[in-house]
Amino acid sequence: MLTGYIGTYNTASTKGIYQFSYEENSGKISDIQSFLSIDDAKCVDRYENILIITTSKNNKSGIALVDISTKTILDEILLENSSPCFVKHHDDFIYTANYHDGVVMVYQIVNNKLKLIKQISIQNKAGCHQVVLYKNYLIVPCLLLDQVRIFDINNDYDLVKTLTFPAKTGPRHGVFNHDYSHFYLVSELSSEFFDFSVDNLEFTLNTKLNLLPKDKLDNTSSAAIRITKDNRFIYISTRGADLLTVISLENEPKIIQQINSGGMHPRDFILSEDEQYLLVVNKDTDDMSSFQLDKTNGKIVKLINTDKVPHAIGIIL
């Protein structure tokens, strides 16, 4: 039995970070309960025995480190006006993106304390939604600018390249394949999938797929994207349409399945370590669902079970 953690929106019915149990053999989720009551804990990541969470206090926002065993806050840095919408660590470095403030923050964990390394100021309301590491660069999709901006870590995080998309595309999240020869990106506003070949800082668009017909885009927005370890399949969530889309990457990218997410407004999802299950949180129906996957063809086979969790946003296992 494994333990996972869920970040939630601030509402009267939510209590910050939740935890749940996950049965590896069956894919069943259970025992969802409050882990730590704290404001604006939308995003969550794990570093050793520490949870890295977004949070707000006294009208300032940022991130905090939480000791899992004692449920105590080890440290926090609150330098932003609104809470980040993305947090991820790589080794002992932490990267956050802030949709409203338009900043990317880089921290380092030193002796269980946070050290601010760099604040990259892009533009107020730039819609910064993710940070992806690529060689010595940070890749930052800026949804409201219709751009992906690339910053050089070794040169004081200077901006070195900008990928520009058509107006109202809204690039949101991306993933690389294992050898970093392809960058796959999903857009929020146009609900499109992009496949770029990558050679150093040259990004060449190979394929673009519409996840929804153009006349079905109203009140829909694609969100998260994941890739399997063997680089054969991509999974994407789309809110409004409440879809999970499966894309095969064999030969050339093509949509092979679209299925209901088990609820409404699938914000985030993850693949289990063995990639036999997909766990998705549906914000508007206050629930979380587990699906079985067929590893041979990548398709979602069946719903295992669903459990309740209020206004869930982020999930880790």
Automatic annotation (TrEMBL):
Pfam families: Lactonase (PF10282). Gene3D superfamilies: YVTN repeat-like/Quinoprotein amine dehydrogenase (2.130.10.10). SUPFAM superfamilies: C-terminal (heme d1) domain of cytochrome cd1-nitrite reductase. PANTHER family: 6-PHOSPHOGLUCONOLACTONASE, 6-PHOSPHOGLUCONOLACTONASE-RELATED. Belongs to the cycloisomerase 2 family. This is 6-phosphogluconolactonase.
